[in-house]
Amino acid sequence: MSNRHPHTVSHSISSPKAPPIMLDRTLSSRRSQPHLDFEFPSPAASSAVSPVPESPTSLADESKTKKPPLYLLATNYISRFGLVKSPCLCLSLCLLLIVFTLFSLLLNSRSFVCVSSYDPISRVSLFGLDGVDSDFGSLGVPWCRSKHGKTVEWTSKDLINGLEEFVPIYETRPIKNNLYGMGFDHSFGLWFITRRLKPDIMIESGAFKGHSTWVLRQAMPDTPIISLTPRHPEKYLKKGPAYVDGNCTYFAGKDFVDFGSVDWEKVLKIHGISDFSRVLVFFDDHQNELKRLKQALKAGFHHLVFEDNYDTGTGDHYSLRQICDQFYIRGGGHSCFKDSDEARIRSKRKKFWEKAVDIDELCGPHEAWWGVRGEMRDNFNHNKTTISYGEHFQNSRFVESILDVYWELPPTAGPSLTHQSRYDPGRAPPPIVEDGRYRMFQRLGLDRLERSVFNGYTQMVYLQISKPESWKYPESDLV
Ligand SMILES: C[S@@+](CC[C@H](N)C(=O)[O-])C[C@H]1O[C@@H](n2cnc3c(N)ncnc32)[C@H](O)[C@@H]1O
Q1: Are strands 403-408 and 225-229 parallel, antiparallel or unpaired?
Q2: Which ranges are annotated Low complexity under compositional bias (predicted)?
Q3: 239 or 106: which leads in pLDDT
Q4: In ligand 1, which atom is closest to the CA atom of 231?
Q5: Given the DSSP bridges, would you call strands 375-378 and 303-306 parallel, antiparallel or unpaired?
Q6: Span 81-121, pLDDT tens digits
Q7: Per-residue confidence (pLDDT) for residue 179, from 0 to 100
């Protein structure tokens, strides 16, 4: 399949000729996490989306008790003295107010200067004294729009309850150091999504030593798995920990077949599966996600999870996040102008967040910022195809035309809690456990985990595909 000539959706939308520029005002925009209705589109819908059993809710409620900043408290307090007649007292109170205000502003101000995440003084200037309020989403968080604005049914409370349940499970993982594989955030995300969907079978593309197979197994103890991965996880057992599942069909080693070349009807029939809307497909194989999406659509799958949903300018394959980074989305579309606000802010953030990209890294030849410097990357960076902005734009129109749900997993917790210093919060949705909520972090058991497990967040995404009847392009385009 050629990726150079993506689909043209039948409702023609002319693509802008010049790359659009992200407006500076979008730099400070935030995207709220949508929590609307979502149903598994099958007759067994009720069992498919039955909620995770409730666990104590006190942890969730605690997040609502965020303390107001000091200067606001001081202002409110002093305003009560409005009736005081003494000029001396009034003057003293005014001075006190000014001192309080300056002190509080100082503590709550955010600077993007070069600071180390382990330096307490720098952390105070970045996060404030109590560590609250880092700047999630301040650079904008692009996302793929769905046709009807549908989203998932789960809430942040469900995510918190899920964390409480998952931490002890994660602590029993067989592969403790999963370098190059999933860390905590995405392990939780995959487990949580799988538990909510309750599929009849799970397909995984890209298993490495088998950690993600183990996560799927924790979510669904009796459900079959099909795993496609060039090297069988058992091969890793010779050198150290790995996970091989007893109820998993491996297309690995000499039996390896790429996801796009499998006759899925035939394979799933062997497993007694005919309803493809009851299948969950998980991709962690570092392939162009547009290619994988088209292959999944062609096969008839509806529920997809992509592990590495890289931000624009980063990663080794074209991702959904990159595809939907468009000027009409908050935080989408970029300017390669070196004196722009975006360039200035990015260069400051780069000094603090390892994976942040500055404008030089973001922009390739001819000011091409989309994908990675104007390239659609594939297969661990082995294939790089230069695409025009028009092609990139059409890719997003195509994706949006077949989507019912696009949901990015939020990071587990703010960096003042996890001490992660890799992903840039400015490009991420607000975390499940906000900065400053140390007691909640502790109560969920997250403080027991090594810091390094929080370093792998790359915006894992869950996609629900709409019914083919509503697609607005010929299915032959999928070939
Ligand atoms: C990042 S690792 C997967 C990590 C794993 N999911 C985990 O959580 O530990 C990527 C894996 O994709 C495999 N891979 C490479 N090409 C692939 C392909 N075409 N299809 C499926 N897997 C592929 C690699 O061999 C590697 O095992």
Answers
A1: unpaired
A2: 39-56
A3: 239
A4: 25
A5: unpaired
A6: 333 445 556 566 657 766 665 655 444 433 332 233 434 44
A7: 94
Identify the residue whose C-alpha is closest to ligand 1 atom 6. 207
Give dist(CA 278, CA 47) in Å, integer: 11
Q: What are phi and psi of 241, to 5 degrees?
A: -65, 140
Closest CA to 120 of 111, 109, 129, 132: 129
- Do residues 150 and 463 lie in contact, with contact meaning Cβ atoms separated by under 8 Å? no
What pLDDT band is residue 9 in, cutting at 50, 70 and 90? very low
16 close to 399: Cβ distance less than 8 angstroms: no
Ligand 1 site, CB within 6 A: 178, 180-182, 205-209, 211-212, 228-231, 258-259, 284-287
pLDDT in tens, 37-80: 222 233 223 223 222 222 332 333 232 223 333 433 343 334 33
Residue nearest to atom 17 of ligand 1 (CA): 285
Tell me if the pTM is above 0.85. no
